Amino acid sequence: MSNNKLTVIDRQGSTHDLEWEPDQTLMEALRDNDLPVLASCGGTASCATCHVFVEKEVFDTLGERSEDELELLVEAEGYRECGSRLSCQLGFSRHLDGATVTLAPEE
Question: How far apart are the first and last CA of the chain?
Answer without folding.
Answer: 36
